[in-house]
Amino acid sequence: xxxxxxxxxxxxxxxxxxxxxxxxxxxxxxxxxxxxxxxxxxxxxxxxxxxxxxxxxxxxxxxxxxxxxxxxxxxxxxxxxxxxxxxxxxxxxxxxxxxxxxxxxxxxxxxxxxxxxxxxxxxxxxxxxxxxxxxxxxxxxxxxxxxxxxxxxxxxxxxxxxxxxxxxxxxxxxxxxxxxxxxxxxxxxxxxxxxxxxxxxxxxxxxxxxxxxxxxxxxxxxxxxxxxxxxxxxxxxxxxxxxxxxxxxxxxxxxxxxxxxxxxxx
Length: 266
Hints:
Layout: E1 14-17, H1 24-37, E2 47-52, E3 57-60, H2 66-69, H3 72-77, E4 81-84, E5 92-94, E6 98-106, H4 113-130, E7 136-138, E8 142-145, E9 148-158, E10 161-169, H5 174-180, H6 203-207, H7 213-228, E11 233-234, H8 239-253, H9 256-259
Parallel strand pairs: 1-2, 1-11, 3-4
Antiparallel strand pairs: 2-6, 3-5, 6-10, 7-8, 8-9, 9-10
Helix pairs in contact: 1-8, 4-7
């Protein structure tokens, strides 16, 4: 197994964002805006870590077909929003009991996207292990326990940057998850990326006790600081990031053309 990204690979600048909106559409617009704006001169050497949460929502992968992944009727009845992210992979369910963790890095000759993705997943596994969880990595983008899947991840390259994000189910409503994502249990033959159905579980269930989302976030912060040798200090969005996010929200992430059909580009 390749080593974690070493300290000599890490840039000194690291910004932590705790920017989280009560709209899944706004949160996903910001994710893409962070990757796009990272190519600007004042941000290109900045490593960004973000912690955020969504209300009840299904997050589709970039290349998925909504009708094959989501029970749209169940989403409507249960007030679960459907939004498409700009990264690939399968559909996931978010709620306030799910912590989302993003790392944005500039790549270099010694730091490939695959190396970054692998290292990020192992950071999360270590953070969960520090809470007492016996978990393992299922390459390329999942963390599992004996009880089921705890975490799924996805990434994308934008110019010379790699944005990687994951969702960790802490106290996630797995009953509602299985209700709205039930079509993904069936085998489908389409040209779209189809989610692989796995049994799911939560951190609280696996530890047989109530675990606060903030506790998982604190464990992640400690591991990131230690393994990447950075001082995580809360930062703010740049003007470019804010403007890009607003544009993406208005023209893309607030539209059915993008969220349901993937047809809108900005």
